[in-house]
Structure formats: structure tokens, C-alpha cells
């Protein structure tokens, strides 16, 4: 099913790695947004938006290359899946950052910082894994760890959600903060889907 | 990768155009719902539901034809993608109309009318673009304009959302109106995904 | 397009049936959660979580088998679609159960019980249909009935939603119960997508 390595493949791996670099930038900006005051937050969210646009550009380059390349390094639908998953990670992080600014939120529950720290770790691992699609070295460690981090994010998410509704909670604040943590949880899910996509590729080739 | 044009292709283009005609009807009904009183709204939402059912029927015909046709005019997965995107546009607009009636909403923020006007424009452009899948004439203009409209819808959506939570907002009204504008924003997203699908087809063939 | 039946196919049908058995267990647990008190609910939701994990394991086995099998009984993407739809049904039901416990909800509107009863019926029909992918016997009856049940679930969902917002509703309770019924409605949608996937397979083969 797999053709022998083609030089053209190199181009795709570089694009995936570039896309993951934007995720790393994005997750870092999200962490800084949490600690910043309102003026800084707007500026940081605008930088996060720039990272999102840059990632969009890369996704567009991959789609164009996929449409115009006859022999792709892996099955076309798996390449497509990786690209949209990378995009989904970025979109969800960008949405979280935007909502924090849009809703003029003040301090956020501690669990929100924990979720963002988990996303930063996911972004690091993903950024390290993408160039290894060339050799397949160390990829199982990557997807096992992402799955572990996503489970952890899920537990933190539920803890934050339960805490949100505690006695005396203001309904409008609940809606706003829930919007932010839902977006963070969606980002963790997308990192997991991306890792599952990498696993599918490795399974097919082995 | 592409087979020479087959007469059978004509059938698919007609179905896509028919589906887009239902979108145009749906977006028009949505605009009328905004300006109507409660009794009229229920009647218009029911007509919107009929348009949704009719579009569903067309999607079903496409899926049946795809399953039974050996040579499709474009890659099978791209045809499938177009069909589900057309369906998603309709579902989201129908949901918005239903929620307005179900929640017995009165006047809606001005931005809601702006969003619906943008969707009407998207539906017009989509309806004009579908028959041009035959010749590929003017398709880049179509997808560039849809992307521009979606960006505009995104800005309007965020403005409406920020406005919703302003001083003295009633939480239940916020939940209801947010449900409606979330559905409108999802419709704009689906129009963009549809346009991206058309772009993929053109890229593959050129 | 179809290769002659291969013994390997049997393995896939057994996995789909096993996955559907977990759906049946899950829907039953969900029904018991509604009638239970808080202590029992936590225990039942934990069993529901176990069923979800078990279903996840099965999905993983299908993906591994798909990646490693050269000739699959049906088109690869249709097998993939069935597997993710089965998974989506389970995830949505598990989410509903978890939220009931997490939000410490007391009694739920009557319509919630109706929705769960509809999901139980969907799970039964799905469990009966999966082994019949071997012979195709009685599959149209299955997907027609699922479509009917999904339409019914949609009407119940809207009735519950409208009722939720009635005079004197507490916004936090609205957010919580809406989270639960949104998850139940998503489960019904996923059962319908699964049935549509089965229909696609049958259309392709006939």
C-alpha cells in the first residue's frame, strides 16, 4: 500500500511540523493570557489570532499540495485527517483566548490554568512528534502520553465544571466560564484525535 | 484521476443546485421570521422545516446515486463532502428558526438580522456556484467571497455575543439568544466548509 | 467493488455486535440512573463509564484490524464510519450519565425518561441489526425504525427544552438540565447516523 519514500514527502512533514509550532506558540500565549491584565490580554489574544491565521495558511498549503500530488507519503485520507486535527486544536485554543477577552473575564478558577498547562504539554509533544513521521521513531510514546494527558484534562474539566455551579454562582459568569473551559476541553480532544490519526498511520505501515 | 465527462454527472449537478435552491428559500424564510410576529413566525418556521425536509430528500437521492454509480464526476469523497455540507447549512438555519419559535423570543438584537443577511448572501452565491461545477467558471470568485462573508459573520457574531452579556442581562434570555446566534454562526461555518470543498475539487482537476 | 466473502469479515461483525451490546448496557444503566438516588447514581454512572471504556477497547480493535487487513468486508471508509458512529452513541450516553451525577441533579423532567426509553429502543434495534450485516436480512426495517425513533426523540427534546424555560425557571438548573438533554439528543442523532451508514453499505452492495 505504501510507495517507497518520495522526496515530495519531506514537504508534508515540514508543513505538519510548522503547523505544530503554531500550536506551541498558541498554547504559550493562552497561558500568558490567564496571568495578564485586561489590556495585555487583548494584545495577547490578538497574537493568538495571528498564530491561528498562520496555521490556517499552512493547512491551506497542505490541502493544495494534497490535491496536486499524485503520490502522498501516507494514505491521502490520513494526511487529510492530520491536517484538520491540527487545525481543530488551534481553532479551539484561539476560541478560548477570544472568549476570555470578549467576556471581559477577571480571575479564572485554578483548574483553568491546569487545563492550559496540559494543552501546552500536548503541543510540545505534538511538535516533537511531527518530524518523526519520517522515521516513526518514538511515536507510540507520543500517542500514549497524549491519551494520558487527555484523560487528565477530562478529570480537571469535570472538576472545574462541578465547582462552577457551587452555592451562590452567578448564572452569567457560569455561562461565560463554561464557554472557555468547553473550548479548552475541545482542544484536548483534538490533540487526542490527532494522536489517534498518527497511530492509524503507523498501524497501516507496520 | 478524472474520467472524461459522463452524462450521469449532469444528474449530480442538478441535485446540488436543487439543494442550494432550498438553502436560498430557507435563508429567505429566516429573514422573514425575524420581522414577523409570533403567529406568523410559527407558520414561517414550519415552512422552513418543509424546506429542510425537501433538502434532506435531495441529499438522500445524492447518497443513493453515489452508492450506485461507478464513475462519479469528481472523487467520491468530495461529492460526499459537498452533500453533507449542503445539509449542514440547512440544518443549522432550520435550528435557528425553530429555536426562535420554541423560545418565544420577542425582538432580537440588530446583529441577528445582519447575520441572517450574510447567510442570505451566502445562499445566493452557493446557488449560483453549484451549476458552475460543470464548467468551473467563476468558482474562485465564489469561494473567496464566501470566505470574506464568513469572516464578517464571525465579527458580527462576537459583537452580538459581547452585547448579550451587558449590564442587567437576564440569564434565561442570554441562553436563548445565544442558542439562536450559535446556530447562525454554525450555518456560516458550513457555507465556508462547502466553499472549501468546491475549492478542493477545482484544485484536483486543474 | 466487493470481494467475495472472506472469513476475516466474521471478526468485524462480531466486534460491531459486541460494541452494540455495550450500547444496550449503557442505555439500560442510563434508565436506572434516572430512577436512582444520589448514592446509587454515582455507582451506576461509574458502571456506565466502564461500559464506555469497554466500547472504546472494541473500537480500538476495529481500527487496528482495519489498518492491518487488506480486504475488508465492505468499503474501508464505511467500516470506519460505523465504528465512529457506535463510539459517538456511547460517548453521548456516557456524558449524559456523568452530567446527572456531576451536577447533583434531583428529579428530572418526565421527557428525559422518554428520551432515554427511545435510546434504549435504538440500542436494542442496533444490537439486533449488527450481526445481520452478514446476510443483510431485515436491515431496511432497522434503519426505517431508527429514523422514526430519532424524529420522535427530536420532538420530545424540543418539548423538554420549551418546558425548561417556563415561568420561574432557575437559570443554573436550566443550564444543567439542558446539558443532559443536549447529550441525549446527540445520542439519538448518532444512532441515526449509524443507521444511515448501514443503509449506505446495503445500497452499495445491491
Automatic annotation (TrEMBL), chains A, B, C:
SUPFAM superfamilies: PhoU-like. Pfam families: PhoU_div (PF01865). It comes from the Bacteria. InterPro entries: PhoU-like_sf, Put_Phosphate_transp_reg, UPF0111_domain. PANTHER family: UPF0111 PROTEIN YKAA. Belongs to the UPF0111 family. This is DUF47 family protein.
Amino acid at each position: 500500500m505504501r510507495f517507497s519514500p518520495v522526496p515530495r514527502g519531506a514537504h508534508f512533514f515540514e508543513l505538519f511540523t510548522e503547523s505544530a509550532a503554531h500550536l506551541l506558540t498558541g498554547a504559550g500565549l493562552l497561558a500568558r493570557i490567564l496571568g495578564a491584565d485586561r489590556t495585555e490580554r487583548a494584545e495577547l489574544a490578538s497574537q493568538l489570532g495571528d498564530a491561528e491565521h498562520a496555521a490556517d495558511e499552512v493547512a491551506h498549503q497542505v490541502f493544495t499540495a494534497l490535491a496536486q500530488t499524485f503520490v502522498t507519503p501516507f494514505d491521502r485520507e490520513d494526511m487529510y485527517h492530520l491536517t484538520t486535527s491540527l487545525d481543530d486544536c488551534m481553532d479551539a485554543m484561539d476560541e478560548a483566548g477570544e472568549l476570555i477577552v470578549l467576556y471581559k473575564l477577571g480571575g479564572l478558577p485554578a483548574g483553568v490554568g491546569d487545563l492550559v498547562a496540559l494543552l501546552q504539554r500536548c503541543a510540545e509533544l505534538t511538535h516533537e512528534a511531527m518530524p518523526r513521521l519520517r522515521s516513526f521513531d518514538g511515536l507510540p510514546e507520543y500517542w500514549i502520553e497524549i491519551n494520558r494527558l487527555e484523560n487528565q484534562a477530562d478529570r480537571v474539566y469535570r472538576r472545574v465544571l462541578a465547582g462552577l455551579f457551587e452555592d451562590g454562582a452567578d448564572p452569567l459568569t457560569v455561562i461565560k466560564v463554561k464557554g472557555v473551559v468547553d473550548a479548552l476541553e475541545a482542544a484536548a480532544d483534538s490533540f487526542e484525535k490527532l494522536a489517534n490519526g498518527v497511530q492509524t498511520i503507523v498501524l497501516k505501515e507496520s
